[in-house]
Design a protein that fits this description.
This protein has about 200 residues and is α/β, with parallel strands linked by helices. It has 6 helices and 7 strands, in the order E-H-E-E-E-H-E-E-H-E-H-H-H.
């Protein structure tokens, strides 16, 4: 059984770490903490953590998962993701990409399989390199920019003070959703996530 590849999208470097665009990588940091592991540098131009996620019935360790944070900029994430998928023998059906979503209100989470990229350059790059859009996505809502602010400027700004008060809860819930997909399957995870609001 091939492992799961869970990708958190974002931009590299400390100047971007708190940006709304990096919320996917923030979710992976929560997952890494739950796995009691730390990321190491992979030759595929990514930070990776290879381990087991969650506990199944009877105390059995959960599925093997590769957490991956591409070390490239968001709009060229596809190269590292495709290289990691090949390296670990992961089919797109075993891949989950965690990313920010302008079309969802803050603190809203949605799971989906395939579909369009909605103007998200990170997803577009991954789809191009994989040659398919049929991979799982966990969309983490960040809302639309206020007033006339450009969307590109908005996603590259840090979460506001008010947003940060709820962000920790959202990140934990997103990590829960990732675990549920891997251990229960997409449909059950969607049912729990999408009907809990």
């Amino acid at each position: 059984m091939s492992p799961w590849l869970v990708v958190g999208l974002g931009n590299p470097g400390p100047q971007y770490a708190g940006n709304r665009h990096n919320v996917g990588q923030m979710v992976l940091d929560v997952l890494a903490r739950r796995m009691n592991g730390s990321f190491t540098t992979h030759k595929a131009r990514a930070q990776v953590l290879d381990g087991r996620l969650g506990i199944l019935a009877g105390g059995v360790p959960g599925p093997r998962v590769i957490l991956a944070k591409p070390s490239t900029y968001m709009n060229v994430s596809g190269g590292p993701v495709a290289t990691l998928a090949q390296f670990y023998g992961v089919d797109p059906a075993q891949m989950l990409v965690v990313h920010d979503e302008l079309d969802l209100t803050p603190d809203t989470l949605r799971l989906k399989l395939g579909g369009g990229e909605g103007g998200h350059n990170g997803l577009r790059s991954i789809s191009n390199f994989l040659g398919t859009k049929d991979y799982l996505r966990l969309r983490v809502g960040i809302g639309r920019p206020p007033g006339r602010m450009d969307a590109a400027d908005y996603v590259l700004r840090d979460f506001s003070t008010a947003e940060r008060t709820e962000l920790g809860v959202t990140l934990e819930e997103a990590a829960d959703a990732v675990e549920e997909v891997l251990m229960l399957g997409l449909e059950k995870a969607q049912m729990r996530l999408h009907t809990s609001a």
